[in-house]
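Hi support team,

I submitted a single chain yesterday and got back a structure, but I'm not sure I'm reading the token output correctly. Could someone confirm the output below corresponds to the sequence I sent? I've pasted both exactly as they appear in my results page.

Thanks,
R.
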Amino acid sequence: MAQRGAYAKGIAKREEILTTALEVIVREGFSGASVRQLADAVGLSQAGLLHYFASKDELFTEVLRKRDEVDAVGMDAAGPDPASLFDGFLALIRHNADVPGLVQLYVHLSAAATDPAHDGHEYFRERVAQIRSRFAPAIADLQARGDLPSSLEPEQLSRILIALADGLQEQWLMDPSIDMAGDIAALLRALGLSSPAAAR
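Hi R., thanks for writing in. Yes, this is the structure output for that exact sequence:
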């Protein structure tokens, strides 16, 4: 029973670390969120903080996973219409412009995680696969009812939209005047998607 209680406390502490780290990165930016600062924020030593994670890279990867959980609430709130998924996607991109520290973290880790040995490699592979699994059926439905051209395969268009979003984030970090959501909405309009969010 004592072991079960210790395990539960460990899970709760790990959750506290991730929630706090998310808040610190939003507030201070990725470059201002050192392991020491995150440890201080949760009342641990650096070694104590890393006791809950295999490495610094795993810690920051899990912060991104926590961000995804928070963001998924907004995406899941979209209506049943396939176009609503893209409304939620555009809203998420707009939100990203308000949290540059998390965008910095995402871009930094995604580049490093192209190495299969990186602690975040599987996270990024799974994340892209999960987004494609949501986008492709919605695109197929929109194509079937004539709201999107069928010249691109659903999986192909899904990959293009993900690549566009990720690439725009990198460009936006170098030039914050870029309207990431506006550029994606422009593509959706050019494809003929009649969506309130895409019309903005």
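A quick pointer for reading it: Residues 185 and 200 are 7 Å apart (CA to CA). Let us know if anything else looks off.

Best,
Support desk
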